């Protein structure tokens, strides 16, 4: 949603109120003012630009959980006070998830899984394989994280990878026309279409509701990997005027929504998990057990949460979802879209820096992240310099999206095809067999972008100085020749335990 749309239905007072709430969340973030001593000897505040990997913890989580933990107890009993309290809050957490994505509790259920979106999509793939055994094809895209690719490969005979649209000579969102072509080609064999809502590499937003409408037109299902979407863009799983635009299943990760140590979540139409034995069995998901048989419960979400779930993590995640809902994801989306546009504008001005993917806001929408390289610089070297000399935390390599990264790098290098020999092109491709990713959270602002842009200009202007201060080690990373970071004096669990007992 752009600013014009937002302002058309919000008064200036409402906008100011939301901005104040967002500012309060930003300023409460845990670890925002951490400082480290750099290779230059100066001490500087960290600029955290690695939120796509994991976000920092919002202060509201810290404060709410501090108040909840004295009452913590296991759930699923109403015999004692602590259990009654925890059971109520755990149920509220499930309902909060459904509310956050606009899912009707009569139609959908939400259940928590242990290893984020990865655990959720593995569960979805195994369940739908058993639920729809005659449908052995999954359609996904080339831009997926491995978590939304490998589970389908593991469970189905064929996975079709749809390419992205090429416009302005750059790769954009997934090609809907090619999805329709695949749906026609494989027909009734398609079990579901599974796509990311937002790319974890480029931040490009996919038109998931258009894809849902297309999938339903051809009688199949839509699964959305919302790991990178949930913290940045509104999700409307149900309630569309055209029900074909509703989503069937959504998976997301709490640690990517400002709640470290929280679980993943699957939100699904109940009917898709009904009628078959749950993938995971154990305590809490049965109505009765005998020595020779057991009876799984039909109740959601209990049947999908075997064992003792991460109760505290689920409540923490729901705390953040409640806070974001109070501000409004439309407002957050608008703010973050402006920030990513500003970042692209500033970095595109720097000579010898390549931004990957389509950067034209008239053709694609982006949020949360952008990936780049300094020409003729190894991505690992760039990331190391940004950390060691500027205290800017970024990530590098292929971000668990190897096919997508390779495709973008190959596409970018095509501009040199007439100037360089095959050997020179291969050498350049090897140098850029990865990227640097700067990714943003609601705690980042234009000052952080300015610091990144200034650092990149400094590196480009003084290439030889930085190259001469580093060497490459066996794993491919670059290490400074003399500067070494020792984390133990800063924090060590063992030392903290020792100190606790002698204090």
Summarize the entry for a quick read.
The strands form seven sheets. Strands 4-12-11-10-9-5-6 form a seven-stranded mixed beta sheet, with helices on both faces. The protein has a four-stranded antiparallel beta sheet with strand order 15-16-19-18. The radius of gyration is 24 Å and the shape is globular.
Distance separating the two termini: 53 Å
| CATH topology tier name of the largest domain | Aspartate Aminotransferase, domain 2
As for the number of domains, it is: 2
- The count of strands amounts to 21
Structural class: alpha/beta
Strand order in the sheet with the most strands: 4-12-11-10-9-5-6
The average pLDDT score comes to 91
Largest sheet: 7 strands, mixed
Number of helix segments? 17
Global shape? globular
| CATH architecture descriptor name of the largest domain | 3-Layer(aba) Sandwich
Radius of gyration: 24 Å
Helical fraction: 40-55%
By CATH, the superfamily of the largest domain comes out as Type I PLP-dependent aspartate aminotransferase-like (Major domain)
Strand content: 15-25%
Uncertain spans: 1-9
